[in-house]
From TrEMBL:
SUPFAM superfamilies: lambda repressor-like DNA-binding domains. It holds the Pfam family HTH_3. Residues 9-37 form the HTH cro/C1-type domain. It comes from the Bacteria. This is Helix-turn-helix. One of its GO terms (molecular function) is DNA binding. It comes from Desulfofustis glycolicus DSM 9705. NCBIfam families: two_CW_domain (NF045718).
Length: 123
């Protein structure tokens, strides 16, 4: 995640830097460092921001689970299906789509950002 996207998500959440620092359990100086580009944004912080953004926006339409949208042939072996979290496939490591099962979260989220399921959630 780049500093501009971090700042943009903070604004979309309607939070000041101080409020976001409290929400994420970190110092205001750390938030400043992310937004100025002095520090890289860790994967777990990126993950939390996307989670908050998606949960804040809610859903107007019922969600079709990822395994149905992608017609997953081996859904029973996927954590998204196991935990009935077809909207959190981007959040869960070990999912089977797009060859992400052995990927780190950082690599996985780079693939998921281009996925239509993820895109619909953050729109």
């Amino acid at each position: 995640m780049e500093k501009t996207e971090f700042s943009s998500i903070r604004r979309k959440l309607g939070k000041t830097q101080k409020q976001l620092a409290a929400l994420l359990g970190m110092s205001l100086k750390t938030i400043h460092s992310y937004e100025q580009g002095w520090r890289s944004i860790p994967a777990h912080i990126e993950r939390q921001l996307y989670f908050l953004l998606i949960k804040q926006r809610g859903r107007n339409k019922p969600l079709i689970p990822c395994w149905e949208q992608k017609m997953c042939p081996d859904k029973e072996a996927c954590p998204a299906w196991e935990f009935q979290s077809g909207d959190l496939c981007w959040f869960l490591c070990g999912t089977l789509c797009e060859c992400t099962s052995d990927s780190s979260y950082r690599d996985k989220i780079n693939i998921c950002r281009d996925c239509s399921i993820f895109q619909r959630l953050i729109e």
